[in-house]
Amino acid sequence: MLVHEHEPFNAEPPRAALRQGGPTPLDTFYVRNHGPVPEADPATWRLTVDGLVHRPLELSLEDLRTRFEETEVEATLQCAGNRRAGLMEVRDIPGEAPWGPGATSTARWAGVRLADVLDAAGLRPDAAHIAFAAPDVSPVADPPQPFGGSVPADKARSGEVLLAWSMNGAPLPPVHGAPLRAVVPGWIGARSVKWLRRITAQEHPSRNWFQATAYRLLPAGADPGRAGPGDGISLGPVALNCDILHPAPGARLPSGPTRISGYALAGEDRAVARVDVSADGGRSWTQARLGPGAGRWTWQPWHTDLDLPAGPVEIIARAWDTTGATQPESPRHLWNPKGYANNSWARLHLTCD
Ligand SMILES: Nc1nc2c(c(=O)[nH]1)N[C@H]1C(S)=C(S)[C@@H](COP(=O)(O)O)O[C@H]1N2
Ligand SMILES: [Mo]
């Protein structure tokens, strides 16, 4: 892992570790923490469901396992800060980690559907948002506060949103949210709240600092130190993205046929329709081969073979989604003061002999 920070722990897998696609091994899955990992005793741990519900609930892990059907969803999580390093090449972003393309990983998550738990609680018609709260107090927040966030009730009631206790068939590791976390496929990782303690149905989106103030797209000229609740654009569904995982950046290779591979991800209700790869600055494009193994909520591995000339080469990749949208060409057009949602074309520089 490439460790960005030890306290709190923040790390991403190197490109080579993500290369095989499919579920990411647990010891390789990226970690994004804003505070210390809270300890929880599974025996005394309780989940509270309250707010605009007819029947507030207090559930133990045993209650969750016995009262609701267990279900599994394979889903990719992607941090809104993924590929921030590309934005930092345009202009520095002080105080934020220079994430490469590895702030994203995929797992088979098992647990119960949030929809089933909300049904048991009886959502009132005025419940428009479902808020998640955790106990990890982050000193980054102003004022310091536990991590939280919300999703619209429609998303919360869709079958893919889980309260998960297992990852790739193993118990959820502490660093990934044990004993229980939300998993919100298709949305920025920040909404998949770890160490979940409380679910609140409410009329308004979460006022937690991590939703009201952070994880928002500010205009390029804004001072992030002065941003307050509601400033900028709230990030929700993941933006269409892709990156190149192989060869490694800066590699020296023999010229000739070369395998280029990577991942693409389309958020929420879109899927990856095509990935184009170019070795001549975008004058000509080759369509990469997609798959196998992409599910409704997972990244799309892709590869192609290009005949590379001798000398310095720039490889470019861009994905298209099922709505016909593609990625923006340059991080210059996307730069924002907190460095979120860099989904510009992937670029890789190589030298061929
Ligand atoms: N309680 C809590 N939940 C959290 C976070 C956090 O710091 N605290 N980080 C969020 C962010 S920004 C991301 S991208 C994902 C990362 O999940 P992972 O560490 O399991 O990869 O968790 C989200 N859930
Ligand atoms: Mo994140």
TrEMBL record:
Gene Ontology BP term (one): sulfur compound metabolic process
Domain Moybdenum cofactor oxidoreductase dimerisation: 240-350
Cofactor(s) the protein needs: Mo-molybdopterin
Region (Disordered), start-end ranges: 1-23
Keywords, alphabetical: Metal-binding, Molybdenum, Oxidoreductase
Record flagged with keyword Signal: no
Domain Oxidoreductase molybdopterin-binding intervals: 34-209
Keyword Oxidoreductase belongs to the record: yes
InterPro entries: Ig_E-set, MoCF_OxRdtse_dimer, Mopterin_OxRdtase_euk, OxRdtase_Mopterin-bd_dom, OxRdtase_Mopterin-bd_sf
Gene Ontology molecular function: heme binding; molybdenum ion binding; molybdopterin cofactor binding; sulfite oxidase activity
Protein name: Sulfite oxidase
Source species of the chain: Streptomyces cacaoi
Record lineage: Bacteria, Bacillati, Actinomycetota, Actinomycetes, Kitasatosporales
